[in-house]
Amino acid sequence: MFLLVHGSCSIAAMAKTDSKNKSVLRGLCDYLALSGWLLLGLFGCGLASAGSAPNPVGMTNNGLRFLHGEGVPRDLDRALIYLCAAARGKQGAAAFELGWLYYRGRDLPRDDGLAAAWLREAERLGEQVPPRVQRDLAEVPPEPLRCRTRHGSDLPVADLRRVDFLIAIYELAPQFELDPGLVLEVVRAESNFDPKAVSHKGALGLMQLIPATARRFGVDDPLEPIQNLRGGMAYLSWLSKRFDGDLRLTLAGYNAGEGAVERHGGVPPYAETRRYVEKILGRYAASVARDSLI
Questions:
Q1: How does the average pLDDT of the chain come out, rounded?
Q2: Rounded CA gap, 119 and 90, in Å?
Q3: How far is residue 186's CA from residue 234's CA, in Å, rounded to a whole number?
Q4: pLDDT grade for 156, boundaries at 50, 70 and 90
Q5: Are 230 and 168 in contact (CB under 8 A)?
Q6: pLDDT(161) > 80
Q7: Which of the residues 63, 103, 112, 218 has an alpha carbon 20 to 30 A from that of 144?
Q8: Which residues does the annotation mark as catalytic?
Q9: For residue 121, how many other CB atoms are within 10 A of its CB?
Q10: How far apart are CA 116 and CA 95, in angstroms?
């Protein structure tokens, strides 16, 4: 997924860093890696590159791997996320692939407006479009550049930060034996993908961890996105095991605490918690029914 001098992140950087900053450095390494950043082995885990742009070539390659099932299970949702992020990063090959997908109309519904928009963008970025395709689309007015899923919804590609979080959720969730689609809906409900969100009760970050829960699951900085995702997923996974995989009780515990679920012998009679559980279950069930996590 990325070019990373891993030893510089896990060994050299840690050796040069005092204990107070190790967790921050580790979180940054995770974030850069999961976002597909190109690290060239500069100081530590690439701190000198921290202002660099995400690596669109790596994202394009990942998108093509998931699109064609090369070494990984074929996953159109995941392919779209990577290709859209890469195309927004001015990667012509990704823009061409998106245009071709909309032009062919096999994996995605045919959309000549989007096909024309992405193929013209690919040409602008130096890619060659077959003359026959150029003739077919010559009179088609292009739409604004968008990434539309097979179910008609638009990916939020204008916000590259959100795309990074989608990628991170896909990569991290299986490590905690969680469905990425469920984690995505929890993040949507908790913070709407705002990594700096702070609730009136003091819950923090993408998955709205209260300080005690953050400490419990080893999160040093709840406002650091990858640390927050790891901590929130660790808590969700723990709750799932505690409640024998009962998704309704797991979500209720995430909102109200496992103690409240146990005291009431089920979903607590709190209006906020009940709305929270039903909202996430409804959205998650819809994504499963249409076989799409985005």
A1: 80
A2: 13
A3: 13
A4: low
A5: no
A6: no
A7: 63
A8: 190
A9: 20
A10: 11
Q: Provide the β-strand partners of residue 148.
A: 154
Task: Quick: pLDDT tens for 39-88.
Answer: 222 222 222 222 334 577 888 998 999 999 999 889 888 899 889 888 98
For each of the domains in the chain, give its residue range(s) and CATH number, in order of start: 6-49 (no CATH), 56-137 (1.25.40.10), 160-289 (1.10.530.10)
> Could you tell me the two tokens for 222?
């709840």
Distances (CA, A) of 92 to 36, 88, 123, 285: 17, 9, 7, 36
Structure tokens at 16: 């040069």
Report yes or no: 125 and 267 within 8 Å, Cβ to Cβ: no
CA 149 to chain centre: 15
Q: Among candidates 93, 153, 146, 77, which has minimal Cα distance to 117? A: 146
Mean pLDDT of 87-94: 92
The per-residue DSSP string of 215-267 comes to HHTT-S-TTSHHHHHHHHHHHHHHHHHHTTT-HHHHHHHHHH-HHHHHHHTSS
Chain center to CA of 70:
21
The mean pLDDT value for 123-133 works out to 96
Contact 275, 269 (CB under 8 A): no
- Residue 188 CB coordination number (10 Å): 14
* DSSP designation for 269: S
* pLDDT of amino acid 152: 76
Query: Phi and psi (nearest 5°) for 211?
Result: -55, -40
pLDDT over 80 (residue 26): no
String of DSSP letters for 97-159: HHHHHHHH-SSS---HHHHHHHHHHHHHTT----HHHHHHHTTPPPPPS--B-TTSPBP-TT-
Q: Which residue has the higher pLDDT, 109 or 41?
A: 109
Q: Is the pTM of this model over 0.70?
A: no
Contact indicator for 178, 233 with CB cutoff of 8 Å: yes
Structure tokens at 70: 């090369």
Record the tokens describing residue 109, joined without a space.
């519904």
